[in-house]
Amino acid sequence: MELRTIDAGGLVHYADFGGKGPRTVVLVHGLGGSLYNWAAAAPRLTHLGRVIAPDLAGFGRSPWRPGSARLSSNRALLGRFLKAISPEPVVLVGNSMGGMLSMLQTAHEPPTVEALALICPALLPAPPGAIEREIAAFFSLSAVPVLGEALARRQQERVPPDKAVNQMFRLCGIDPQTIDPHVLHLHQELARERYRMPWAIPAFHEATRSLLGHLTLRSGEVQRAMRAIRAPTLLMQGLTDRLVPAETSRRAHQLCPSWTLDELPGQGHTPMLQDPDLFARRLTSWLQGAAA
């Protein structure tokens, strides 16, 4: 894994995992994530081609300025990034919020994407009562200007970075003790850095407000974008996902029946971290079938 930066109309920090296959595979993390969310799975995909994972604006080590963490801004940045790193269409893989961004990129700029894989994507509002009350309350408060950021700063004062990383893994359905120690260390190291970044909390809450807006007020626009996609599309869903309930992805599949729905029993919100071997096998198998 080589860490690099590129100016794509905004500085993007990204990882190049190498690869010798014919394609370029771009992996897009979700809300609160980073390129390290792919550190376990990416090496298992290099037989497909060059594997790249960027930090979105305001996340990981890609800097933020007001407005840059909104979905519209990060979608435009992603589009410029794809064109900068590959002259050919890519295989675009997005998790959670990264799934929303990857879907919008495919709908808005079809020539940039050869195939689309959405991993537990945040595309549609969850059915009433499908998300645990505490989790729903957290995201609702995070969307409140000023208050959400104040509560996050208070939480940061109480919870050290390593513990915050463990809490994040558990929320995603992963026992931290099962994570590859090197991958866990990368997440912890980055968390310590982000605790010192003055823009980390504002960026997270700006992105949260934008994502919730797309899931509610702009849901019709999102659904039109989903239906406009013509690229082969995989919808991979963990059946124990606490953040994007399986029923949400099933509804997305009903709206877009040409998409392939792959449900993973026992997997939570980030199967590429929870079981990277399984994730890589399922993605590879689908991609080989889609290309046939």
Describe this structure in words.
45% of the residues lie in helices and 16% in strands. It has 292 residues and is α/β, with parallel strands linked by helices. The chain has a single domain, classed as Alpha/Beta hydrolase fold, catalytic domain (Rossmann fold, 3-Layer(aba) Sandwich), CATH 3.40.50. The chain has an 8-stranded mixed sheet with strand order 1-2-4-3-5-6-7-8, with helices on both faces. Strand 7, helix 9 (246-255) and strand 8 form a beta-alpha-beta unit. Helix 1 (71-85) crosses helix 2, helix 2 (97-108) crosses helix 8 (219-228) and helix 5 packs across helix 6 (181-195). The chain is globular. The model has no long low-confidence stretch (mean pLDDT 95).
- The counted number of beta strands is 8
Count of distinct structural domains: 1
Fraction of residues in H or I helices: 40-55%
CATH topology: Rossmann fold
CA(first)-CA(last) distance: 30 Å
The CATH C-level class name? Alpha Beta
Radius of gyration: 17 Å
- How many distinct helices? 11
Task: Label the overall shape.
Answer: globular
Poorly predicted parts: none
| Structural class based on helices, strands and sheet pairing | alpha/beta
Taken as a percent bin, the fraction of beta residues is 15-25%
- Across the major sheet, the strand order is 1-2-4-3-5-6-7-8
CATH homologous superfamily descriptor = Alpha/Beta hydrolase fold, catalytic domain
CATH architecture: 3-Layer(aba) Sandwich
What's the story with the biggest beta sheet? 8 strands, mixed
Order of helices and strands: EEEEHEHEHHHHHHEHEHH
